[in-house]
Design a protein that fits this description.
Blueprint: H1 2-14, H2 16-42, H3 45-50, H4 66-75, H5 77-97, H6 100-106, H7 111-144, H8 151-180, H9 185-211, H10 222-228, H11 236-263
Helix pairs in contact: 1-7, 2-5, 2-7, 4-7, 4-8, 5-7, 5-8, 5-9, 7-8, 7-11, 8-9, 8-11
């Protein structure tokens, strides 16, 4: 197992797709924050008033801090989820196409061992992309926004960072379960996008239509739940709900995905 981990680490360090994805996420975050800052700089009290607001509304953005910026970026889960869906599927499809999986099985390892090895690799990929995404937000937020940062905000950021990382790990196991059991990479990517983006949009639309701003349903579908818990004032109940989401969805993905794979 140790030799497999070493081999996995070497493969991931050489992965061009992973490096490119990290750079893309990092740059997209910076561009997004620059655009957000630019829009706020262009806005005037007159424009806000004509749009039905008040001139004082613009002042609400005066004290945005670097940590607020990270929370806003993490709430845009479609960006990171879409990237994870594509990179994870490419990684699994490439190893299958190049015969790496067949080579490992030929050495006497079972499909169960192979699946566990994939979980390790996908976990590393997910966390590396997640950290790259957050890092881009932290750096651009530190440059563009200079609001006050309190000890309570730092604690809230730490909780949000850990919880969101756990939820994205669970999401990555869902993408992996789909990708490893579907031989066609294009179909696997399409299904992952449907699960992450299309179904999320449908659930959000139905939930908003029935319950308004209250996330009665969204907080129980992991892809829509992520954006419900990405803010600095997260409560104990929300922490419990988010971790429960990750355990249920991540656990089901590993259990179902591995059983289907071992029987294939």
């Amino acid at each position: 197992m140790r030799s497999n981990i070493i081999a996995s680490n070497m493969k991931l360090r050489r992965s061009r797709a992973l490096k490119v994805a990290c750079i893309v996420l990092f740059v997209l975050n910076i561009i997004g924050n620059l655009l957000f800052k630019g829009v706020l700089s262009i806005l005037t009290g007159d424009i806000i008033e004509k749009a039905g607001g008040f001139e004082s509304d613009l002042e609400a953005f005066d004290n945005i801090s670097m940590l607020d910026c990270v929370a806003i970026s993490l709430s845009l889960m479609q960006v990171l989820s879409l990237t994870l869906a594509i990179i994870i599927t490419i990684h699994i499809s490439y190893e299958r196409k190049c015969g790496i999986d067949s080579f490992i099985l030929a050495r006497g390892f079972s499909k169960g061992h192979l699946y566990v090895g994939k979980i390790y690799e996908i976990s590393v990929i997910s966390l590396v992309l997640y950290i790259s995404y957050v890092l881009g937000s932290v750096i651009s937020g530190a440059v563009l926004w200079h609001g006050d940062i309190t000890g309570e905000m730092i604690l809230g950021f730490v909780k949000m960072f850990i919880i969101t990382a756990i939820m994205y790990l669970a999401v990555s196991y869902i993408f992996m379960a789909i990708a490893i059991n579907i031989n066609n990479g294009g179909i696997a990517i399409t299904l992952n996008i449907i699960v992450a983006i299309i179904i999320s949009a449908v659930i959000t639309a139905i939930d908003k239509n029935i319950n308004g701003d209250e996330a009665a349903v969204r907080c129980y579908y992991i892809f829509t739940a992520i954006e419900q818990f990405t803010y600095l004032e997260i409560t104990i109940k929300e922490i419990f709900t988010s971790i429960l989401n990750a355990i249920v969805y991540g656990g089901m993905a590993v259990l179902i995905g591995s059983n289907i794979y071992k029987k294939s």
